[in-house]
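Write out this protein's structure.
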Amino acid sequence: MASPITLESSTATQRVSGAYALIDSLVRHGVKHIFGYPGGAVLPIYDELYKAEAEGKIHHVLVRHEQAASHAADGYARATGDVGVCFATSGPGATNLVTGIATAHMDSIPMVVVTGQVTRAAIGTDAFQETDIHGITLPIVKHSYVVRDPNQMSQIVAEAFYIARTGRPGPVLIDVPKDVGNEEIDYIPVNPGDVTLPGYNPEMPISSERVDEAIALLRASERPLFYVGGGAIASGAHAEINALAETFAAPMTNTLMGKGAVDEHSPLAVGMLGMHGTAYANFAVSECDLLVAIGARFDDRVAGNLERFASKAQVIHIDIDPAEVGKNRVPDVPVVGDVKAVVKEILSRLDDQAAPDKNQTKAWRDRIDNWKTDFPLVAPQYAEDISPQSVIAALTEKAPDAYYTTDVGQHQMWAAQFLKNGPRQWISSAGLGTMGFGLPAAMGVQVALPEQQVVCISGDASFQMCLQELATLAQYGIAVKTVILNNGWQGMVRQWQQTFFGERYSSSNMAVGMPNFELLAQAFGVKGMVVSDPKDLSAALDQMLAHEGPVLMDVHVRRDENCYPMIPPGASNEDMVGLPDKPRP
C-alpha cells in the first residue's frame, strides 16, 4: 500500500541497520513485549532485539512453538486493547504462525506479525526455508507488507500499527528479507500519528438520520433485545451499552465474543445466546419485536437458521464495518460507525428528549424472568463424580475478577455459560475455534498484566495441542493457573457423535496415551495437581489460586457429561434440546 508519510520536522539522521529501524520503530509505538522464536532468516532482527533488551527498552518472551507466539500476542491484545506483536523466522517458523493469525483475523484482534524471509535475491528460487508467507496469509490479514527497501522500514511499521488498531481491528504482517535487516541506511524515524493513508477510511461519519430512526424504533418497542458482540469490546463501549439498555429497560444478550460488554450481574442480562446459549436468551431472540445488534455479525453459531432467526423482530444493526451490515441479515435501520461513538450519540440525543417509558417493557421482562426460573443454568452435583460445570461455578465464586482464557470445546461453552466476566476479562477463540489457544493466550495476558489473576480453562484434548508452553511459564515465572476439565475425550466431538452419528465414536477417545498431567507439569518445573473427588475440589482450587507461580490442575470430571442447552444444526434458536420438560414459548 503506497502512501505518503508526514515525518518529524527534524532532518537529523543516523546510520543504522534495517533491523535497528524495525526494533526502534516498535519501541516508538509503545511495544513493551514481543513473543517469538528465532531462526536463521530473522537473526539480524534478534541481534538488534538483544541490544534493545539489554538497554531495558523491550522484553522478549521465548515461546516453544511459533503458534504459541501468535496466540500469546493475541491474548495480550485482547486483554489490553493494545497491538500484540510476535516474531518468527522464515519457512516453517512463519507457517507455524498461520493458525494464530487466522484466529486473530476471525475475531478482529489487532496484531503486528513480523516474519523473517530469505534474502531479496533468493526470493522465488526455492531457497532453504523460503515460503511465500505474504501470499499464504493474504486471506487472513487486514494488510501485509514485504519490506524490499530498508529505508521504508519505519514507515511500514507506523502504517502497520495504524491499520491494525483503527477501524475494525485485525492482524498485519511484515515480512523482512534477511539482507534488509542487515543493510545500513540513513534512518529517519516515523512516530505514531505521523501516518496518513489516502483511501483508507477506518471510521465513517455517523448518520444523524439513522440515529433518529433507531431511537424511534427503540421508543416504539415493547419487546426489545440488545444483541451485543465483539465489536462492543473492541470499541470499549460497555458502559454506554449498559446505560442505553437501562434507559429503555431493555434485556441484553451477548455473543461468545461479546462476553464482558454486558454487565452479567444486571437483571437485564440474559447471558449468551446461540448454539449453547441460555434457554432464556434464545427464547428472547425468538420472541423479541426489536433486535438491536451492536458490534455483532449474525454468525451461524448465533443465528442457526437465519430465515427463522429473530423472525418477529425489526432490526437495528450498529457496526463499524459496512461490509458486515446486511451481509447475513438486512436491517431495518443500519447505523455504520464506531460502536461507542454511535451509542454515545444515541444517549446524547435522548438527553434532550422525554425519558422513555420503562413500564413499556415490564411485561416482556417479567416473561423473561419466568423463563429464567423455568429453564435455569444449574451446575449439577454428583456424589462420586465432579461435574465440569461445578468446577467453573466454583471458580466464578473464588476468582470473580480473574482474567479467563479458554481452549475450545465443551469446557469453553460451560465457561461461557457460568462465568461472569468484566470487559476484556474473557479471552477465547470464537470465530476460528482454535484448540491450543488457551494456555499461550493466558501467557500473553499474564505478561501484559502481571498483577492480575489469570486462569486458563482447558480440556484434556485441547491442552495437549500447546502443552510445551509449560516450559515458557517455568522459564519466566508466568503465574498462569491452568485448570484441565479432563473427561478423556475430545468432548464436543464425542457429544456430536453421540447425538448425530449413532454413538460411533470415531477417533475421539483420548484416554489411551493420555499423559499424567501432574507429573508432566512437574517435569517442566511447574506445580502440578490432580483432583478426582468432589470433596477435594474446593480446597484444591483455593490452593491453586494462592500459589505464587504457575499451576497445572488436572480435574477428572464426569466422562459422559454433555453441554446443554444445544441447538441442532439448521434448527432455530427456540428448538433447543436438553431442556427441562416445561412449556416453551
